[in-house]
Amino acid sequence: MSDLGGRVLAAIPAIAFAVFIVVQGEWWFAAGAIALGLICLHELYLMLASVRPARLAGFLGLIGMGVAAMTGGPEDVLLALAATVAVTFLLTIAGPSAAGGVFGMAAVLLGVVWVGTAIAHAIMLRELDHGGGILAAVLVGTFAGDTGAYFGGKALGRTPLAPRISPNKTVEGLLFGIFTAVLAVWVVNWYQDWIDTPQALILGAAVAIVAPIGDLFESFIKRDVGTKDTGRLFGAHGGALDRLDAVLFSLVAGYYVWRALLGA
Asked: For the chain, what are the domain ranges?
């Protein structure tokens, strides 16, 4: 319980920041999302420093994808991602990071595809009809699911989910987290007249299923490089990637599910 309380206290400034940029929308949200993405990239590249990634290429790629998401659409984001491949190659061979070779380039592009894609989709989601409300529902559902999985695993967990990646996660915790995430998304949209119950449940199910994959994805990377936390942004409770790992997957799912529900 003390660990959970510490996590909540450490997250309060981040929650306030998220609420502010989501409510403001437009370039306020885009700038805030890009800033968070750059912090996540910084943490990832620190973990992968041994392969000497050309970090500037990753930062430029993420910024380009974020701006493309705000000023254009999915095609523009894809163009920015494609351009990042060439930029990564040129900056790799031009600087001291050339020693990293293909593994350094792979590290750069891992971050751009993983983090940059999520940030771009968050920005595009905020620009859709009722995007602010859907974005809030996705965030609440993701974090509620994570909390539900934590308590469900503590109380009921018996069956290991992925012992080689994250030994403390259980199948029972996962199922309880999925239920909690779907319920949270439904409750958040309870009084909204622009979304009905089936739509809310579909959105909640997408978030509930995809978010745990994001959590395991980051856990796999951390275990592979031999680190416990990605940073110290939240003190003893880790870095930005530790707190946003699930969100980086659920934002992408939320964008496409909401577009489909809108018929866009």
From this structure: 1-127, 129-264
